[in-house]
């Protein structure tokens, strides 16, 4: 994943901040990138490689390198990347090669610290540059390693070296979480508070000043607020927790549902029982039923008896199902599923053709994809729900792995977590398009799920996933049962 991030950032820098010449090239080549045939893509790749052999211009080489990645020619791009690093040892590419091939292979904090020292000595930080987040990835890694080893002072020292305000919470929060695990709440709280303050800074920017960085900084805001509120609750500071959450809801009302779990605790502590119950209702409607006993308690207190309780929950259950049906309706499609034939972890071939007559659930995932991993308990529960249904098959398509030993890594992950999944490796390129299965299916991000009916047609395409086990079970049931029925056209 680190390589993907580095390449993406380099391409962004090349296109966003580079010369107009590179921008013009990108626009010239983009039709081939997006809609070209394999022959056209291969021809363009060969042209880029041919030019790369003769040019002495660093920016042209970096452009060729980045575009080769986009065309799916990873091996050629990797080779060219090494050439650039040798020709231009002080270049951004050389720095990226060092970070990827040297720094990230260090296993302990001291070794990482030594590698980081070498990095900034040979590629000093330019405060005016647009790509200093590359350094922050490294600094955050050093800080986390020191925190893991119990060296709080060095961890905090490195966190103070971070460059990009929009990203630094990504360094603060893992260290803060480790400090909390070690029982050091005093050191953890300021880090989480800084993460909250940084997010609020970007949320409060005028609309015309908000960009992708601002959006990224605000993305983790609900999580930071909830983590800090939970600490305040544990310390008996319910008033502070409630004030924190209500300010957060006022700032980011579109994220209100993500605060509900912490919000109801503060409301209950403040004896605002009706509002507390309303927050639990929001959680319930998302398919999370863990608070049903608390809801029963609040309902009984507010109503003076359990009269009407069954009807109350029945109404909520109907709302949950309606919400899911409305949600999945937006994901409806109807088109033939591209054929595939992939190997499973036992080396056996599994193909779409051999599975015709079954409803298929395809789940594209990778070991580095945290949203994918967080959805797996729910997907396991959904698969268990259909274990006796011979007309339904779940397939977990492992894709976009970058480690050379990815098969061993995947097998170890599945075994460690005891997931009873049929895992297929998405590493077979189509002879005509040169695409792996994810590309043929139009996957742009993972997790991505496809529901295929018995006739081999894609009926639903989902991106992202809830970590909520109950919600995933209900959602999968609606998707699968609908896919079992003939398409209405």
Automatic annotation (TrEMBL):
Record protein name field: Redoxin domain-containing protein
Residues of the Thioredoxin domain: 331-481
Key words, A-Z: TPR repeat
Recorded superkingdom: Bacteria
PANTHER family: PROTEIN DIPZ, THIOL:DISULFIDE INTERCHANGE PROTEIN DSBE
Gene source species: Sphingobacterium chuzhouense
Matches recorded under CDD domains: TlpA_like_family
TPR repeats: 222-255
């Amino acid at each position: 994943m680190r390589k993907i991030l580095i390449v993406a950032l380099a391409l962004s820098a090349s296109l966003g901040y580079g010369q107009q010449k590179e921008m013009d090239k990108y626009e010239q080549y983009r039709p081939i990138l997006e809609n070209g045939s394999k022959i056209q893509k291969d021809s363009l790749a060969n042209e880029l490689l041919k030019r790369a052999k003769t040019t002495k211009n660093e920016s042209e080489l970096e452009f060729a390198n980045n575009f080769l990645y986009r065309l799916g020619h990873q091996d050629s791009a990797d080779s060219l990347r090494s050439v650039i690093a040798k020709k231009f040892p002080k270049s951004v590419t050389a720095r990226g090669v060092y970070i990827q091939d040297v720094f990230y292979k260090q296993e302990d904090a001291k070794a990482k610290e030594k590698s980081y020292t070498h990095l900034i000595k040979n590629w000093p930080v330019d405060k005016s540059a647009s790509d200093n987040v590359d350094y922050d990835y490294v600094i955050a890694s050093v800080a986390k390693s020191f925190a893991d080893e119990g060296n709080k002072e060095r961890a905090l020292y490195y966190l103070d070296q971070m460059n990009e305000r929009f990203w630094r919470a990504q360094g603060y929060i893992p260290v803060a979480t480790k400090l909390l695990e070690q029982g050091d709440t005093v050191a953890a709280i300021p880090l989480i508070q800084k993460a909250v303050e940084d997010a609020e800074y970007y949320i409060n920017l005028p609309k015309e000043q908000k960009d992708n960085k601002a959006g990224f900084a605000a993305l983790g805001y609900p999580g930071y607020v909830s983590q800090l509120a939970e600490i305040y609750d544990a310390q008996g500071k319910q008033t502070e927790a409630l004030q924190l959450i209500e300010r957060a809801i006022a700032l980011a009302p579109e994220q209100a549902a993500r605060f509900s779990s912490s919000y109801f605790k503060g409301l209950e502590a403040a004896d605002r029982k009706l509002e507390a119950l309303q927050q639990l209702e929001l959680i319930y409607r998302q398919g999370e039923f863990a608070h049903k006993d608390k809801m029963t308690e609040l309902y009984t207190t507010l109503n003076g008896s359990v009269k009407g309780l069954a009807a109350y929950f029945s109404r909520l259950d109907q709302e949950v199902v309606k919400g899911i049906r409305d949600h999945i309706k937006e994901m409806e499609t109807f088109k033939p599923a591209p054929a595939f034939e992939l190997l499973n972890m036992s080396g056996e071939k599994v193909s779409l053709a051999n599975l015709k007559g079954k409803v298929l659930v395809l789940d594209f995932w990778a070991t580095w994809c945290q949203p994918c991993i967080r959805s797996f308990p729910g997907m396991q529960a959904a698969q268990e729900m259909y274990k006796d249904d011979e007309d339904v098959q779940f397939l977990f398509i492992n894709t976009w792995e970058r480690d050379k030993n990815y098969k061993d890594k995947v097998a170890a992950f599945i075994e460690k977590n005891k997931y009873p999944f049929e895992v297929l490796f998405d590493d077979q390129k189509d002879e005509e398009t040169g695409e792996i299965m994810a590309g043929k299916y139009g996957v742009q991000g993972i997790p991505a799920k496809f529901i295929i009916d018995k006739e081999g047609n894609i009926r639903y395409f989902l991106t992202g996933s809830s970590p909520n086990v109950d919600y995933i079970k209900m959602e999968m049931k609606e998707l699968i049962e609908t896919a079992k029925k003939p398409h209405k056209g």
